[in-house]
Specification:
With 241 residues, this protein is α/β, with parallel strands linked by helices. The chain contains 6 helices and 12 strands. The longest helix is centred in the last third of the chain and has 17 residues. It is globular and about 55 Å long. The two termini are 28 Å apart.
Length: 241
């Protein structure tokens, strides 16, 4: 089996603070090309925005809805200097042969955190950030401040890898995944630790609820690693199995 080169990631952290006035939130960008500050103008209770969210909760599959909502969220978050910092960081990452990982910190503004930021759409690049290969997007929670860390696990560390690639992803406007490639990346990354007996890996190629529940009960993993997509349905984030 050939080796799979792991991509190099550079982080752009986007932190949204508590509202400075109704519908106005301070935003800070910190990345490889420097820091930037701006104010995001976004009313989470605006009637047109609530209408769009209600359509999503009703399992809407209209691509125009996704694009309009994604553009609105993008233009609000990436205002002025924040967009400049984003594009500069993206260019810097490409110049270094890497990818730009976008990390959203929204914990200080829960009313903003409730919005479906996974639909962020960059109109200049004509793509959704969350499914672009060079701009993985994640929400970042300072969980260490909320919960004490778990006690250290005695080796081997049990890792459950679940590969999910449903056939109906197009209905959500999502591209198919490459689960076998992801599996190779994980297996090769863990190979040295597995040879030393430090890690035990179990792979589920069929992401069925019954199979997952059985693996959780019998394997009792320390790490649950899912390769798959998520979506926003009926007001909540869901995993697509």
């Amino acid at each position: 089996m050939g080796t799979v080169a792991l991509p190099r990631f550079l982080d752009l952290e986007l932190t949204v603070g508590p509202a400075s006035s109704p519908g106005h939130y301070p935003v800070t960008a910190r990345g490889p090309s420097g820091d930037a500050h701006a104010t995001m103008a976004l009313d989470p209770d605006a009637p047109d925005l609530r209408t769009a969210l209600a359509a999503l909760e009703g399992d809407a599959t209209d691509e125009t809805l996704f694009l309009d909502l994604g553009c609105r969220l993008f233009n609000a978050l990436f205002a002025g200097p924040i967009e400049d910092a984003y594009r500069a960081a993206l260019g810097y990452a490409k110049g270094q042969g890497g990818k730009l990982r976008l990390r959203l910190r929204l914990g200080q503004a829960p009313e903003i955190a409730a919005l479906p930021w996974e639909y962020l759409y960059d109109p200049r690049r004509d793509l959704f950030l969350a499914i672009a290969t060079d701009t993985p997007l994640s929400r970042h929670l300072d969980v260490e401040q909320l919960f004490p860390g778990p006690p250290p696990a005695e080796p081997p560390l049990r890792v459950l890898l679940i590969l999910s690639n449903p056939v109906d992803l197009e209905e959500y406007g999502l591209p198919p995944l490459s689960p076998e490639r992801e599996r190779r990346v994980v297996e090769e990354g863990l190979a040295p630790l597995r040879r030393e007996g430090q890690v035990e890996l179990r792979v589920l190629t069929q992401a069925r609820r019954v199979a997952i529940s059985e693996a959780m009960r019998t394997f009792r993993p320390h790490v649950f690693h899912l390769v798959g997509h998520g979506a926003f349905r009926r007001g909540q984030g869901v995993l697509l199995l």
